[in-house]
Amino acid sequence: MSKTVTVKAHTNIALVKYWGKKDPKLMLPQNGSISLTLDHFYTETSVTFDPHATADQVSFNQKVIAPQKAQRIIKFLDLIRERSGETARAIVKTSNHVPTSAGLASSASGFAALAAAGSRAAGLELSLTDLSRLARRGSGSATRSIFGGFVEWHAGSDDASSYAEPIQDPVDWDIQMIAVVLQASKKPISSTAGMQRVVTTSPYYPAWVETANADLVAMRQAIAAHDLAAVGELAETNAMRMHALNLSAKPAFNYFTADTLTAIKAVQDLRANGINCYYTLDAGPNVKIICASSDTGTIKTALQRYFAASQLIVAQPGPGISITETLH
Ligand code: PMV
């Protein structure tokens, strides 16, 4: 009898960012990070280890993808096979509920879902902490997507000590994000290569690690105090420092487009007019606005001077993974 395990995992946006590995093989980060899991964007993945299958088969939004394009997923399945002793090939079906090409961290929800579904389908019964460690091997940000609400990923110094845990879930106060989904030109550099370049060439990298560690302490306090302005200010400063690393790398790179700068300016103008809102950005052009739900109308109206209503997606704090299992 084989079983199919289906897992739903939500994406997360970092408020104190991970941007650089100290061990690329184990995916140990240079510094810890803190994120908010979001309800609106998620991945659903089902895994079956099929003794009759001759190769791993991965389909994405109902389309089978070529093995050479599925290498990262197949490597991850190999890691699960190594740990569980499972020898069969896997049938993986994944669907992404993230607006197409929005660049909204689908690797976070994707590898969190794959870690949980794959390990359980292979007969492993891992704790949430162990799932977080396993997801880390697929994508750093996936470490945090096992959990809901505000989550901290402890950098750690080896496989055992580098995992995430929830610091506030459920989130019982008014904080949300509005994603401003912008047209992506081709990504100038992958996050893996971008991180590697800043660690090895930015003269500011040591200062980043130092300030990110201080941000972690302040962010924990701001979240515990339910202080939106403090969370927003810290997140905004931290994000711009991350992007400053990219500008100071050799050769320099950045993920901004003209629309990114327009959205940033709109947030700054709103704030100058007394609206409590802040921005953060990851390895792509999209801007995420941190704000209270009571200001949604005002912020959307202001942003609609520049962007279509369909480009503005409101997301609330979201839950951790959920698992369903069918035997056949
Ligand atoms: O693990 P990756 O490759 O998805 O790295 C993502 C890094 C950022 O999104 C830019 C920051 C973060 O902490 O999520």
UniProtKB/TrEMBL annotation:
EC class name: lyase
Protein name: diphosphomevalonate decarboxylase
Assigned keywords, A-Z: ATP-binding, Lipid biosynthesis, Lipid metabolism, Lyase, Nucleotide-binding
Ranges of residues in domain Mvd1 C-terminal: 178-311
Highest classification ranks of the organism: Bacteria, Bacillati, Bacillota, Bacilli, Lactobacillales
Lipid metabolism keyword on record: yes
Entry GO MF terms: diphosphomevalonate decarboxylase activity
The enzyme's E.C. designation: 4.1.1.33
Family membership noted in the UniProt record: Belongs to the diphosphomevalonate decarboxylase family.
Span of domain Diphosphomevalonate decarboxylase-like N-terminal: 9-164
InterPro entries in alphabetical order: GHMP_kinase_C_sf, Mev_decarb, Mev_diP_decarb, MVD-like_N, Mvd1_C, Ribosomal_Su5_D2-typ_SF, Ribsml_uS5_D2-typ_fold_subgr
